[in-house]
């Protein structure tokens, strides 16, 4: 396994470039920068708009945007890596960052700091999150955490009132089973998605049980007992009538498109996503959304973390790294551009940008900020990015969870099979 040490950022000294109007570096004529991200209709609209702003402000540089849905993004990126034709700037997630650094697909940004790249007002926590083995690789474009999103109308119709019937920031799986069934009885719509195959929820559950998803040595952390308990917990909620039928849930295993989420399609009253997706989900709905944390065990040990929702990274195939990093810098610092981006990718990690956005937040954006305020101090510590092979482990979890949903094998048998395969994947990665 190709292992990297825990991050340790070495701060750059000296002055940094101010990115005020007319203060951008001069570039050769006809420089083209390709920016590739995974998106959704709302994210794509905003990102193409800021690309237009940047192109107007930067004569001689043309940024070209490329976007795919999350399910296809990394497949396309893998093909580009193999072909040596990656875009200059790519969007990355914290969970896969180590893999792309280890295979050389993204390169350090240190030499550009204070020149084409300004990080002077970026939160130190965000800088630390993008720093691996003492080198700065990844520029945070928003902070993020796990979030449950629920249809307020359905909850109200069922008499499930936040702050009265349940605490949206401290409720248990047992409480979820009860009020999800209540919502189904009152509205005909199951009260919650079934997260049997949801690896995000599973990762929180592992930490809530006092374990780590990946141990410091890169080995897998969950025990047989934890895996069994997680699947049994959701089996109990399902048997109580709080979720859609198991076969329906199995058909959605691994699906990440927002338009297919249960709270969007109206097939459930609550869906579990990342907090930066709140704006995109609300844009697809008429009913107002409410927010809550993921459910917890009775001990209420924090399971979710606050982490960068996404980064922008410079690839090894960039034809003009200075022009690419200047664009990346503007993407997080330019107040006109960041006003358009808003909070769609998460809470900005740049202090001046947050202050500038505050007066003009929409109702759903303000809800996102309020959520972040309320979870401060009640989240788990941010672990190192997962090791190589973690994506395959997640896919294996989703695939085998379908066997649990369809009752093809017993939970203990599937749990044992999953752990055997997960450990084998990590050993050979």
UniProtKB/TrEMBL annotation:
It comes from Devosia pacifica. PANTHER family: ABC TRANSPORTER SUBSTRATE-BINDING PROTEIN YESO-RELATED, ARABINOSE-BINDING PROTEIN-RELATED. SUPFAM superfamilies: Periplasmic binding protein-like II. Belongs to the bacterial solute-binding protein 1 family. Gene3D superfamilies: Periplasmic binding protein-like II. GO terms for molecular function: ATP binding. GO terms for cellular component: periplasmic space. Keywords: ATP-binding, Nucleotide-binding, Periplasm, Signal. It is found in: Periplasm. Its main location: periplasm. This is ABC transporter ATP-binding protein.
């Amino acid at each position: 396994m190709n292992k990297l040490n825990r991050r340790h950022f070495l701060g750059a000294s000296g002055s940094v470039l101010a990115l005020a109007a007319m203060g951008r570096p001069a570039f050769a004529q006809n420089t083209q920068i390709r920016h590739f991200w995974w998106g959704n209709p709302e994210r794509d609209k905003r990102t193409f708009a800021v690309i237009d702003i940047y192109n107007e402000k930067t004569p001689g540089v043309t940024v070209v945007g490329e976007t795919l849905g999350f399910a296809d993004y990394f497949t396309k990126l893998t093909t580009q890596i193999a072909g040596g034709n990656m875009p200059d700037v790519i969007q990355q997630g914290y969970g896969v960052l180590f893999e792309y650094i280890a295979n050389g697909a993204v390169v350090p940004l240190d030499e550009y700091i204070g020149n084409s790249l300004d990080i002077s007002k970026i939160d130190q926590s965000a800088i630390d999150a993008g720093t691996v083995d003492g080198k700065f690789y990844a520029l945070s474009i928003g902070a993020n955490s796990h979030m449950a999103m629920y249809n307020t109308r359905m909850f109200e119709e069922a008499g499930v009132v936040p702050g009265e019937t349940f605490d949206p920031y401290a409720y248990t799986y047992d409480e979820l089973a009860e009020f999800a069934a209540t919502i189904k009885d009152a509205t005909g719509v199951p009260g919650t998605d079934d997260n049997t195959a949801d690896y995000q929820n599973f990762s929180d559950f592992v930490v809530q049980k006092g374990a780590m998803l990946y141990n410091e040595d890169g080995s897998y952390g969950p025990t047989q007992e934890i895996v069994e308990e997680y699947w049994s917990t959701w089996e109990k909620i399902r048997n109580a009538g709080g979720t859609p039928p198991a076969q329906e849930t199995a058909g959605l295993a691994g699906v990440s498109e927002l338009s297919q989420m249960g709270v969007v399609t109206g097939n459930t009253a609550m869906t579990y996503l990342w907090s930066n997706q709140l704006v995109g989900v609300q844009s697809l709905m008429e009913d107002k959304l409410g927010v809550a944390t993921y459910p917890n065990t009775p001990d209420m040990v924090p399971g979710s973390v606050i982490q960068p929702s996404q980064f922008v990274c410079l690839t090894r195939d960039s034809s003009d790294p200075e022009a690419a990093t200047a664009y990346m810098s503007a993407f997080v610092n330019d107040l006109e551009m960041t006003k358009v981006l808003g909070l769609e990718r998460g809470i900005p990690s740049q202090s001046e940008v947050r202050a500038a956005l505050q007066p003009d937040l929409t109702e759903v954006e303000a809800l996102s900020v309020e959520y972040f305020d309320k979870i401060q101090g009640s989240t788990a510590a941010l672990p190192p990015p997962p090791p190589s092979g973690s994506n395959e482990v997640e896919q294996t979890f989703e695939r085998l969870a379908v066997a649990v949903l369809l009752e093809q094998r017993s939970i203990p048998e599937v749990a044992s099979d999953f752990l055997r395969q997960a450990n084998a994947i990590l050993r050979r990665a």
